[in-house]
Hints:
Mean pLDDT: 85
CATH topology of the largest domain: Rossmann fold
Distance between the termini: 35 Å
CATH architecture of the largest domain: 3-Layer(aba) Sandwich
Number of domains: 2
Low-confidence stretches: none
CATH class of the largest domain: Alpha Beta
Number of helices: 9
Number of strands: 12
Amino acid sequence: MNTATSVKLNESxxxxxxxxxxxxxxxxxxxGILQGDYRSLFFGAGMELAELREYQTEDDARTIDWNVTARxxxxxxxxxxxxxxxxxxxxxxxxxSMAFGALERPKQTVMLDFVATLALLLTRNGNRVGAIFYNNxxxxxxxPRGGRAQVLRLIDDLVTREPSSSGSMTDxxxxxxxxxxxxxxxxxxxxxxxxxxxxxxxGPANLLSQRHDVLPIRLWDPREVExxxxxxxxxxxxxxxxxxxxxTSDKNLRRRFYEAAQRRESELAETFTRAGVLxxxxxxxxxxxxxxxxxxxxxxxxxxRR
Length: 306
């Protein structure tokens, strides 16, 4: 588990202290590895249509616009230019399951670290970041702005708006619908959640991704996948509040738990596919620098697909 990149969330964890800690322990390490070149992180899918022209033999067939081709009776391709000024939005799930994980590093802390780091990297290069805080309803919206003060505001909101029970299972569909209404200019959209939620969000996510560059950041904890052998414990469903006493020393129980978790993983993977998005999975026990480097590799794959 990586403890070096997290500031424990207590009364001494001020936004400024958290940001300075991440700047020193995460951003500077990334600078050393990436040599300040963050194109693979933020550019490559944020493209604006420049023109349509007739297909040439050296063109990538994936750029063919089939609707225009059908109307013109000859193949036409789309040409794009990269939008160098990025507006990024963080759609943040504050449902109760986000509080799950080890005491020193639950999912909400990983979310804070990730959002603060990406916001700092974006704003220091002149870009703007905004956020929508959600827990079965939009609790707050921070319009996109640049500068260190904006990053500090996001951190402060994440520290003060801790995950809490809304009385029902999380439904991400209203969050995605709200984002579609609010975000007008083509943007980089991070959907940060553990995706412990009701089904049905794939369609709205797909619609949002047709206009914006949508990147799901899936947060998870290893204890959600494999039940540890720690004897008799009381477990509680963080979304519904239902409690149950279980004997984790029972091998059959642990096996059924693992099989159920694998089914959920498979269903979630299928949902991401239907939504037409590639998720970045980030464990509560993973080093944040390593995760962001995986994010850079993911962006490169997305770039090649286009």
